[in-house]
Structures are given as C-alpha cells and as structure tokens.
C-alpha cells in the first residue's frame, strides 16, 4: 500500500532516534569479514554464578507439579504477579523501613515501558475543563539516559539542566548537578510535572550522593512534583555501585524504578515501580491497555530469591565485584592507550559504562561513530545524551555544553580482550582526527 500515512504520534515514534540506533547495533551483524568490538549496547555481562542461580530456579519450576504450565499459561494482573509484588514490598519495607505495601509496587515489561507510561502521565498537555496547558519533565543532570529522549508523546516534554564539571589531575572528571540553575528554573516555571534522574547515571557512571538525592527530593516536594529515580544499576540489586555514599532511597514523593535486567535477566523484561498507590494504580491501568499484563517468567524466577535474600547476596558477592574489576581494567586500558593525547574519563562510580571525553576531536562523535563502525567498533555517540532544550531559552542550550560532541559511551561488560581491542582502535582514530 503506497498511501499509508502515520499520525504525528506515529512519525515521532518511528523516526530516527538514539535508542533505535543503539538497539539496532546490538542485534545487527556487521558486514562479512569485519571483526566486531561491541562496546555500544546495554547488554549486561553473563556472570556464571548468577546464571547458575537462575538455572536452578528454572529447574525447580520445571520439576514441580504443573508450575511451569501455569507460569506460561496464565495472565498475571495488570499490576503484576501477586507473589512477586508481595516479596518486593516485604523486602524493601523490612530492610530499609520504607512505609510501603503491595499497593505501592507495580510491574511492567521492563523499566523502559514504565518510564514511557509515567513520563506521559506527568507531562504533556493537560486540560481542566476550561483551558489546556503543558507540563514538562526536568532532568537535573544532563547528559542523561538516551532512552528517555524520545519517550514523550509530544515534542518538548523534557527540559535538561546542563551539568557542571570538575576535572582532576589523574585524567578523570565528574559531573555535578547545577543546583543554582535547577532551583532558579523551578522558581520561575510552574509547569514542571516531575524531576527525573538515573542513579547510577547512564551514560557516565556518575552516582548522585545521598545528600544530592535528598536535596533533589526536597526541591521536588517544595514545588509539589515527584522525583523519579531510575535505579536500574543501583541498590539493593544489581548493586553496580562502587561508592559508599549511595544508600537506597525512597520517600512518599519518590517514584523509584528498579529492574531485573542488569542482574542477568534482560530478555525477560521485568521492570519494578515503587511509588504512591495512585501512581501504581495508574501504571497498572495503562499496562492493561498497552500490554494486558507483564511477563511472568522473570517475576517467578526472582520472587523467592528476593524473599530469602539470595538475590541481594548474589549481587553483593558476585555482581558488584565482577563489574568493579572490569571497570578498573578498562580505565587502566584507557589511560595506557590514550597516553599522550588530550582525554578524560568520567569517574567510574557505577553502572556498566565508561564515558570518554576527547576534547581535541575535530569531527563530531556522530561522524566519529561512523568511522569506528567501519573498523567494527560499535559505541554510542555522546550527542544523543544531551537533550531537553528549554523552549523559552531560559537555560543554556544543551548543544552548547562543551562536551556535546566530544564524548563516547562505552560498555565495558563484554570480553576484556574485545573491549581493549576496541579501545585501541578508538585511540588510533582519535589521534588521526585530533
């Protein structure tokens, strides 16, 4: 059919986007004869001890009466699998003293789906019967996660606060929230629907401290909006945090997103939302319309592991040490291979990424990405993580951030030799294009 037209919604969601490119690069093979160095996607590592744990759980399900048949043959409720929700609520409330119950927990097909639901619940066009008005999501620490950028149904739903930066003598640097700019923006704009941060931050591996998170929550509460915290790499699972100043945090004004993806179950798409019961009910209602229910397998595997503490013990004993060791090895490789050039790497405080800054790069990282891909090196260009220009020009354009076209996000979760092989090519091409 040649006359098919897409709506504005369809055009927005089917056009080019950073997250589409990222996921496409994960799944598409390179041309024949090109050796791959896959440093681009968000796939977690395969950790033998974790896989052994899940295999044992699956074998137990398979071997017990008709548990497997019921697992694959019955829908769960739109809010999620009752047993799993109860285990999550019980563990978090008992361990951290959070005043939550099952009514505060909702399950979605991955946290990406949850953010799509909640972003569009809290921002976009609102009507009160007499007039229409628009609300936005404010991102206090840009660069921020590529997967948010195109999730708003309408255009202009995100406003990014460009980060400040502190450089160190050891060729590392760290982004910080520009609290003065954030508080000034919030005071002057009554159309904010929520604040949102990732912790650890994707793409940089930055971890907002406990005091920073509490300050963000205080600002959000002052202005009557929730603080969304994307905890995909955080505590208590998968525990890919390498600092001591980052305790799990939730209060009644926080919408906390968690996941089973980065603790070894990415394909089972299990997102977890901990929030006020009004938000949880809304997420369940949208889930019923968009997906009927969430997938059950991840919930069934993880429920008893959360209940008895095994999942958290596994995260502490195997997952965190695994990634911390790989992070150190990757940083060492960067310092060795980039010696003699003008470069910096963001302090690695968590997540599965290194954020590489190349100040002398004479082409954009989008073009640099294309050159690397010819050599088999898959990365994610930094431009995609700078988004959310303020429509009223009350903030500096995100594109004017000095790092806008100078950074790459590198996934270090894969084979170390492959990672270092890719870094070697990146360093060689950086010298060529400096």
Q: Provide a count of the helices.
A: 13
- The chain-level structural class is alpha/beta
Provide the gyration radius in Å: 22 Å
What is the arithmetic mean of pLDDT?
A: 94
Parts with pLDDT < 50 across at least 5 consecutive residues: none
**What is the strand tally?**
16
Shape category: globular
Order of helices and strands: HHEHHHEHEEEEEHEHEEEHHHEEHEEEH
- Strand percentage lies at 15-25%
Q: What do you see in this structure?
A:
The protein is α/β, with parallel strands linked by helices. 39% of the residues lie in helices and 17% in strands. It has helices at residues 8-14, 18-27, 48-63, 67-73, 82-96, 111-122, 179-188, 210-222, 277-291, 297-307, 310-337, 365-374, 416-432, and strands at residues 37-38, 105-108, 124-127, 132-142, 158-162, 164-167, 172-176, 192-198, 227-230, 254-259, 271-274, 344-346, 353-357, 377-378, 380-381, 407-411. Strands 2, 3, 4, 5, 8, 9, 10 and 11 form an 8-stranded mixed β-sheet that branches. A hairpin with a 4-residue loop joins strand 6 and strand 7. Helix 5 (82-96) packs parallel to helix 10 (297-307). 47% of the residues are buried. The mean pLDDT is 94.
Features:
434 residues
Short note summarizing the structure:
The chain has 434 residues and is an alpha/beta fold. Helices cover 39% and strands 17% of the residues.
Furnish the topology, listing elements before pairings.
Elements: H1 8-14, H2 18-27, E1 37-38, H3 48-63, H4 67-73, H5 82-96, E2 105-108, H6 111-122, E3 124-127, E4 132-142, E5 158-162, E6 164-167, E7 172-176, H7 179-188, E8 192-198, H8 210-222, E9 227-230, E10 254-259, E11 271-274, H9 277-291, H10 297-307, H11 310-337, E12 344-346, E13 353-357, H12 365-374, E14 377-378, E15 380-381, E16 407-411, H13 416-432
Parallel strand pairs: 1-14, 4-5, 4-8, 7-12, 8-9, 9-10
Antiparallel strand pairs: 2-11, 3-4, 6-7, 10-11, 12-13, 13-16, 15-16
Helix pairs in contact: 5-10, 6-9, 11-13
């Amino acid at each position: 059919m040649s006359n098919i037209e897409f709506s504005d919604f369809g055009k927005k969601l089917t056009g080019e986007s950073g997250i589409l490119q990222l996921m496409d690069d994960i799944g598409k093979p390179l041309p024949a004869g090109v050796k791959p160095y896959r440093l681009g996607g968000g796939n977690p590592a395969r950790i033998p001890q974790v896989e052994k744990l899940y295999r044992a759980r699956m074998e137990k399900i398979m071997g017990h009466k008709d548990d497997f048949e019921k697992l694959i043959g019955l829908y769960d409720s739109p809010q999620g699998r009752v047993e799993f929700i109860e285990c999550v609520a019980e563990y978090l409330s008992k361990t951290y003293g959070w005043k939550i119950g099952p009514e505060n927990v909702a399950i979605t097909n991955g946290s990406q789906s949850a953010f799509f639901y909640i972003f569009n619940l809290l921002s976009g066009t609102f009507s009160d019967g007499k007039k229409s008005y628009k609300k936005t999501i404010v991102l206090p620490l840009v660069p921020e996660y590529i997967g948010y950028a195109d999730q708003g149904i309408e255009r202009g739903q995100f406003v990014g606060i460009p980060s400040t930066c502190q450089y160190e003598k050891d060729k590392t640097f760290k982004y910080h929230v520009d609290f003065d700019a954030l508080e000034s923006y919030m005071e002057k704009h009554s159309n904010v629907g929520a604040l949102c941060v990732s912790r650890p931050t994707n793409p940089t591996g930055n971890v907002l401290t406990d005091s920073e998170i509490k300050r963000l929550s205080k600002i959000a509460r002052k202005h009557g909006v929730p603080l969304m915290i994307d905890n995909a790499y955080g505590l208590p699972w998968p525990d890919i945090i390498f600092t001591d100043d980052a305790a799990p945090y939730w209060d009644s004004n926080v919408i906390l997103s968690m996941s089973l993806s980065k603790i070894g179950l990415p394909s089972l798409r299990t997102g977890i939302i901990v929030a006020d019961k009004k938000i949880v009910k809304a997420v369940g209602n949208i889930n019923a319309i968009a997906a009927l229910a969430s997938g059950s397998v991840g919930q069934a595997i993880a429920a008893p592991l959360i209940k008895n503490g095994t999942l958290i013990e596994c995260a502490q004993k195997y997952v965190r040490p695994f990634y911390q060791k790989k992070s150190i090895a990757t940083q060492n490789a960067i310092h060795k291979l980039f010696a003699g050039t003008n470069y910096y790497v963001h302090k690695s405080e968590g997540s599965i990424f290194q954020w590489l800054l190349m100040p002398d790069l004479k082409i954009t990282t989008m073009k640099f990405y294309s050159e690397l891909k010819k050599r088999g090196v898959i990365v994610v260009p930094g431009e995609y993580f700078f988004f959310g220009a303020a429509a009223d020009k009350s903030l500096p354009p995100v594109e004017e951030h000095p790092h806008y076209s100078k950074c790459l996000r590198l996934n270090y979760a894969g084979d170390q030799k492959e990672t270092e092989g890719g870094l070697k090519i990146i360093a060689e091409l950086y010298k060529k294009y400096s």
